[in-house]
Amino acid sequence: MIEKAKLAKIVGTGNVISDWPVLDEYSRDMSFTHPIKPAMVVKPGNAEEVSRIVNLARETLTPLVPVSSGPPHFRGDTVPGSGGSVIVDLSGMKKIIRIDRKNRVVMFEPGVTFDELGSAVAENGLRLNMPLLPRKSKSVLGSLLEREPVMMPKYHWDISDPLSCTEVVFGTGEKFRTGAAAGSGTIEEQWAAGGAQKEAAGPSSASWYRLIQGSQGTMGIVTWASARCELMPSLEEPFFVGSERLESILEVVHWLIRLGLVNECLVLNSTNLAQIAAAHSAQKSFQKKENLPRWVLFFNIAAYDFLPEERIKGQTEDMLELVQRLGLEVVKVLGGITADTFLKWIRHTSDEPYWKLRHKGGCQDIFFLTIFDQLPDMVQTMYAAAEAAGYPGPDLGIYLQPIVQGVNCHCEFNLFYNPQDSAETAFTRELSISATKRLLSQGAFFSRPYGECTGLIMNRDAATLDALRKVKAILDPRNIMNPGKLGL
What we know:
Blueprint: H1 4-11, E1 16-17, H2 20-26, E2 40-42, H3 47-60, E3 64-67, E4 86-89, E5 96-100, E6 105-108, H4 114-122, E7 126-127, H5 140-145, E8 163-170, E9 175-177, H6 187-192, H7 209-212, E10 220-228, E11 230-231, E12 235-243, H8 246-258, E13 265-269, H9 270-279, E14 295-303, H10 308-325, E15 330-331, E16 333-334, E17 337-338, H11 339-346, E18 362-370, H12 375-389, E19 397-403, E20 408-417, H13 422-441, H14 454-458, H15 462-475
Parallel strand pairs: 2-4, 3-4
Antiparallel strand pairs: 1-2, 5-6, 6-10, 7-11, 8-9, 8-10, 12-14, 12-15, 13-14, 13-19, 16-17, 18-20, 19-20
Helix pairs in contact: 1-3, 12-13
């Protein structure tokens, strides 16, 4: 194992922590992953220090667990998979390296949060394609590497978007740049030649970033990334559509995205919309729920610098014609929540406490990808699993996010529970596993497996798992990068 004194020579004595209370915090998260206490926590300040830490870990066969977001953590990927691990906490690497408005791209380090990066790009007339209400401590890079769904499917061209290029220190200790950043010369020399580090694919014909995304730190540690941004609209008109039938909502979603009419576009059930509203007001959780339809579609029509009034007018007329033809009604206020207020909420991080924790203090998420035609059946399967387990169906939160130009959809079920109640915790854990098994058998694609169900998901495709192990053996031959995650 690495000696504390050797780590201190790299990052400084104050950035190597072995105090028991701190180690205990990193030994667990809010998932059901079994706690394992790390040996130390090290906080590098730059990419060179990260590289030296990885090389030292190689020499001593010390497992490294990269962490970029602050607490609370939810998925078990930052909990050590073995004893003697060293947590590499990147949250102090907060440099925003470059904002390029012309090419709509930003480059930043792993400790930068959504509030920090969002404010910086806004000063340049840009904005991020964000996930729904991330917690305030969430790292932008962490979110991109986890492939969290973003709210604007219109600008979501690939499952990896908006991630562009990365610099990664593989388990071999070697630095590697992906995408356009892998071109000749330093990054500064690329800028001087007009490079923008916006193209994700490469070097050559390989898409190396796909090996890094979703790998949960098992291949290497990313020290910076670039991401695509979008222009700030000149005018916007957000709306709600409510319905008791999910099929009706999905039909509207399909056509709104297909016709390119909307930017933000997402679906919540009444439980989740009430939870979000409660988290952003002084009112109690679920207070507005009885005033909401079972399913709520939120979308936003936007116009930019050229003829914004005409664009808003034309797209709104097309949208109204579409929604009315499908027998639904467009409104600006739903259950006391205005569409303009909701848009302001989702443009930022969640207020504290984090919206998923406000009701009971704990939340277990089940999420996967599927196509629109299968969504109603998947939802019914989840309700059936909850009913069989005795979980109250009305308490189940549901979030549906169209992605990749509406080609498919992120489906997320939120199980709210009291983590201080051991019986309720055990009950929720069992429901999470049983529901995942049901959904898997129905064709749900769990592209981001975490925690206890990882083996269940990964072992369904032995050939892919074997290929991943071969790749890891090349990039991390001494198996020091977050061992035990993803079955690697």
